[in-house]
Design brief:
Blueprint (H helix, E strand, L loop, with lengths): L5 H7 L3 E3 H6 L4 H9 L3 E5 L2 E4 L3 H9 L3 E2 L1 H7 L12 E4 L7 H6 L1 E4 L7 E2 L2 E2 L1 H11 L2 H14 L4 H10 L5 H10 L7 H12 L5 E8 L2 E9 L4 E6 L7 H16 L3 E6 H6 L1 H15 L31 E2 L8 E2 L6 E3 L2 E2 L6 E2 L7 H9 L5 E3 L3
Parallel strand pairs: 5-6, 11-12
Antiparallel strand pairs: 1-3, 2-3, 4-5, 7-8, 9-10, 10-11, 13-14, 15-18, 16-17
Helix pairs in contact: 5-7, 7-8, 7-10, 8-10, 8-11, 9-10
C-alpha cells in the first residue's frame, strides 16, 4: 500500500496537523520533508504543520489593514476546521470603505472590535469562536468550538458567559454551540458527525466508554439511551493492519453485547452528509417500527477519488466550473451499455443498429457476429 500524501492528510485533518498524526496516518518522514521543501506545507513550529496556502491569508489581511477572523483566524491559532477557507476572512471597522478589488480577493465583514478582541492582526481566540458560531453553519461552528476547547486556548466558562451576553444576529446559534461544544472531540471529522447526529435527534456523547461484563471499548460517539455507537472511521487510525484488526474486533464485541454500531467514512461525512442523515434517521425509524425510505442517490465517484468505480452517474445538476472565458457547461451522461435485439433470418444473422449509431458502430457490429450488445456515445 502506497504512503499517503502528507499535504492531503493535513487537508483532511482540517488544515493543521501534528507530526504524530501524520505518522499514524502512514505518511513518511521523507515525504513530509519534501512537502515542506516544495512549499505545499508550512512548519508553524516544531511538530506542527499547516497548509502553505493559508499562510497568504495573513499577508492579505496585512495589506488591507484588516484583521484576520473566522476560519482564517482559527487556522492561524492552530485549530483544525471543517473546510479550509479559500479566501482570507477578515473584519474591518464599520465605517471603513473597502475597494471592489479587495472584496473580490477576501471575505470582508464589517464589525466593531472592542479592547482585547484582536492582537497581532488576528482576532482573539474567544472572539474567533464567537464570530464563527454566529456566522458559519452549525457543523462548521461546532468544529471550530471543539478545536478551541481541545487546544486549551478557550475555556468553557468564558465561552458560556460570552454566549449569555450575546445579542443580535446569530446569538441563538452561538448559545447552542457554546452549550454543545466538547473538547473531547478528536478532530473536525468527529465534530461534524456529531453535529449531524444532534440535528437528527440523537443524544450522543464524545469519546464515551462502553463498559459491560467482559467488554471495555472506547467509542467515538455513544447514545446510551438507544445503545447506539456511531464511529468516524478515518485512514489515520486504520493505516496499519494491526489497527484495522483491532477496530474490527472492537465493533464485533459491541454488537455481540447488544450495541448497534453505525460506521461512516470521512468522504461520507464531509462530502455526502445527506447519506449520513438518511442512515441515522432511517435507523431511528426502523427502531420505532416505521418503514425506512430509500437511500439518497449519490455519485458513483467522489471528488478527488481517482480510484473510484466507473459507471453511469446523474450529473445534470453538477455544473462544470467556467474557465473565465465561457459560460459554465453541464456535464453529460457517460456512455451506457444498451442491449440490441438480434433478428434471426434464413440467409444469415442480421443485427439491428441502435438509433444514432455512426459508421464505426456499424463496422464494429458487422465484425462481431455473435455479440448482442453495442455501445452508444463513443
Amino acid at each position: 500500500m502506497s504512503a499517503p500524501d502528507p499535504a492531503a492528510v493535513v487537508a483532511q485533518l482540517g488544515g493543521c496537523a501534528t507530526t504524530r498524526q501524520l505518522r499514524r496516518s502512514g505518511a513518511r518522514a521523507r515525504d513530509l520533508a519534501a512537502a515542506v521543501r516544495e512549499g505545499r506545507l508550512h512548519r508553524s513550529r516544531r511538530g506542527r504543520y499547516r497548509l502553505a496556502s493559508l499562510e497568504t491569508h495573513a499577508a492579505q489581511a496585512h495589506r488591507m489593514s484588516a484583521v484576520l477572523s473566522h476560519r482564517s483566524a482559527a487556522v492561524q491559532h492552530g485549530w483544525a476546521v471543517k473546510n479550509d477557507p479559500e479566501l482570507p476572512e477578515v473584519v474591518v471597522p464599520r465605517n471603513r470603505n473597502v475597494c471592489a478589488q479587495d472584496q473580490r480577493t477576501a471575505v470582508v465583514r464589517w464589525r466593531r472590535l472592542g479592547p482585547g478582541d484582536a492582537a497581532d492582526g488576528v482576532t482573539a481566540p474567544l472572539r474567533t469562536v464567537v464570530d464563527c458560531a454566529r456566522d458559519l453553519p452549525f457543523d462548521e461552528a461546532l468544529a471550530v468550538a471543539d478545536s478551541a476547547l481541545r487546544s486549551g486556548q478557550v475555556r468553557r466558562g468564558r465561552l458560556a458567559a460570552a454566549a449569555a451576553q450575546a445579542r443580535g444576529d446569530g446569538s441563538r446559534q452561538l448559545r447552542r454551540v457554546a452549550r454543545l461544544a466538547d473538547g473531547r472531540a478528536a478532530n473536525p471529522f468527529e465534530s461534524v458527525l456529531r453535529a449531524i447526529c444532534l440535528e437528527e435527534g440523537l443524544d450522543v456523547v464524545c469519546q464515551h466508554q462502553v463498559v459491560a461484563h467482559g467488554l471495555w471499548a472506547q467509542a467515538d460517539l455513544v447514545d446510551t439511551s438507544r445503545r447506539l455507537v456511531v464511529e468516524a472511521d478515518s485512514h489515520e487510525f486504520h493505516a496499519t493492519r494491526k489497527g484495522f484488526r483491532k477496530d474490527v474486533r472492537r465493533y464485533t464485541e459491541m454488537v455481540v453485547f447488544g450495541w448497534t454500531v453505525l460506521r461512516f467514512s470521512w468522504e461520507d461525512v464531509m462530502l455526502q452528509p445527506e447519506f449520513v442523515r438518511w442512515a441515522v434517521r432511517s435507523w431511528v425509524r426502523a427502531r420505532d417500527g416505521h418503514p425506512v425510505p430509500a437511500p439518497p442517490r449519490t455519485p458513483v465517484r467522489l471528488r478527488g477519488d481517482p480510484e473510484g468505480p466507473r459507471g453511469t452517474r446523474d450529473t445534470r445538476h453538477t455544473p462544470v466550473p467556467s474557465d473565465g472565458h465561457h459560460e459554465p457547461r453541464s456535464r453529460t451522461m457517460r456512455p451506457v451499455c444498451r442491449v440490441v435485439p438480434v433478428l434471426a433470418h434464413r440467409e444469415g444473422p442480421t443485427r439491428a443498429i441502435a438509433p444514432g449509431a455512426n459508421t464505426e458502430h456499424r463496422w464494429w457490429m458487422r465484425t462481431l457476429t455473435r455479440t448482442r450488445r453495442t455501445y452508444s456515445g463513443w
